[in-house]
Amino acid sequence: MSRVWLFDLDDTLHNASQRAFPELNASMTSYIETHLGLTTEEAVALRHGYFNRYGATLTGLQRHHGVKAAHFLHETHLLPGLDPHLHGHAQDLAALRRLPGRKFLMTNAPRAYAKRVLAAIGLTGVFEGMVCVEDMSCFRESRPKPDARMFRIVLARLRLRPEQCVLVEDTLIHQKSARSLGMATVWMQRWLRKAADGRRLHHRPAYVSRRVRSLSALARAPKF
Predict the structure, then answer these.
(1) Predicted structure pTM score
(2) How many other C-beta atoms can be found within 10 angstroms of the C-beta atom of residue 163?
(3) Where does the secretion signal sit in this chain (predicted)?
(4) What architecture (CATH level 2) is domain 4-14+86-220?
(5) Which of 64, 71, 76, 224 has the most CB atoms around its CB within 10 Å?
(6) Could you give the residue range(s) of every CATH 3.40.50.1000 domain in the chain?
(7) Of the candidates 31, 119, 111, which has an alpha carbon nearest to the alpha carbon of residue 82?
(8) DSSP 101
(9) Which residue ranges does the chain devote to CATH 1.10.150.450?
């Protein structure tokens, strides 16, 4: 059976926590302040609340405030001057290129941002296809990772069976959902060593097939 790899983007292929995520968080907070008329503190609380509840701030804004996805994604991901600060790990990127099997990018980020990041870290053309947040919807509503129904729809669209696929991610809740459908999961920890509350991430949950600190390690032993 040919292995199919579904790679996350931020904090999996590059160090998003260093620069991209702080800028994105500030941009989303500013958007919410401007378009919903909230204070900074209220906007931050709303952003966190929707992310924790739905897995993406956009989903909550769509459901409860009628925000248009295309406008939100465009406005919040402009991030001028970000590209020179994007970087991956050279050995990891080389290992990804030689990893056997089909490779897809699967990210909750918009397509324009994903292409921009891949270009900046030298991975343009490496993936057979990209599944971005614009592709993750049900009934005209954004349903990004970890939505299990979205996973099923995307796999059917790509004509893939769950048992063929390996989701490589830094985010545990996404892996839990993927594992429940029969996918193998890899917890990537090169860039993210702590949870949002500051706890060290040592324990490997039962739904994680493998935990790695580099893509090089994955390439050395890609079997499960």
Answers:
(1) 0.92
(2) 11
(3) none
(4) 3-Layer(aba) Sandwich (3.40)
(5) 76
(6) 4-14+86-220
(7) 119
(8) S
(9) 20-76
Q: Which long-range contacts (CB under 8 A, 24 or more apart) does 141-145 make?
A: 141/59, 141/62, 141/63, 142/56, 142/58, 142/59, 142/62, 142/69, 143/59, 144/55, 144/56, 144/58, 144/59, 144/108, 145/55, 145/106, 145/108, 145/169, 145/171, 145/174, 145/177
Could you read off the pLDDT of 113-128 as tens digits, one per residue? 999 999 999 999 999 9
Q: How many residues does the chain have?
A: 224
Q: What is the pLDDT of residues 170-188, one digit of tens each?
A: 999 999 999 999 999 999 9
pLDDT in tens, 63-90: 999 999 999 999 999 999 999 999 888 9
Q: What's the rounded Cα separation, in Å, for the pair 67 and 53? A: 17
Helix (H, G, I), strand (E, B) or coil at 104: strand
